Amino acid sequence: MCFEAARSLGTLPGANQHDPFSPPAGWTGAEEDYRDFIASRLSDPVWSSRMGLYTMVACTNSISATGPYAQHAAEFMSELVASRGFVAQVAVCH
Predict the structure, then answer these.
(1) How far apart are CA 61 and CA 7, in angstroms?
(2) pLDDT by residue (tens digit) across 21-49?
(3) What is the Cα–Cα distance from 22 to 52, expressed in whole angstroms?
(4) What is the maximum span of the chain, computed from C-alpha positions, in angstroms?
(5) In the predicted structure, residue 50 carries a pLDDT above the cut 90
(6) Taking residues 48-63, what's their average pLDDT?
(7) Fewer C-beta neighbours within 10 Å, C or N terminus of the chain?
(8) Given this model, what pLDDT does residue 4 score?
């Protein structure tokens, strides 16, 4: 996974199998289910390490969130970054 990939949170289901913010293909959760979906990935070692990389990048770089759950992804990332003492700069693109 490269640095540039970690600067974009893609939330379109099935769009990127390596992006921790992208639900799997066929996922049909509602917006309110998305936050639970992302939180569940923190308990998985593989997804948690990827999310950690994305968080490290977001601590010192502006990032973007795209797709149907972009706002929720941006809010979640902002919380992760704040927990490390930084302020996230996340542009939400629908």
Answers:
(1) 8
(2) 999 999 999 989 999 999 999 999 999 99
(3) 15
(4) 36
(5) yes
(6) 95
(7) C
(8) 79
Cα–Cα dist 20/49, whole Å: 9
Query: What stretches of 1-94 show up as alpha helix (H) in DSSP?
Result: 31-41, 45-60, 70-82
What is each CA distance from 52 to 64, 69, 81, 91, in whole angstroms?
16, 19, 10, 19
- 49-80 burial, b if ≥16 CB within 10 A, otherwise e? ebbeebbbbbeeeebbbbbebbbbbbbbbbeb
Residue 26's φ and ψ, nearest 5 degrees, are: 85, -5
Q: How far apart are CA 60 and CA 58, in angstroms?
A: 5
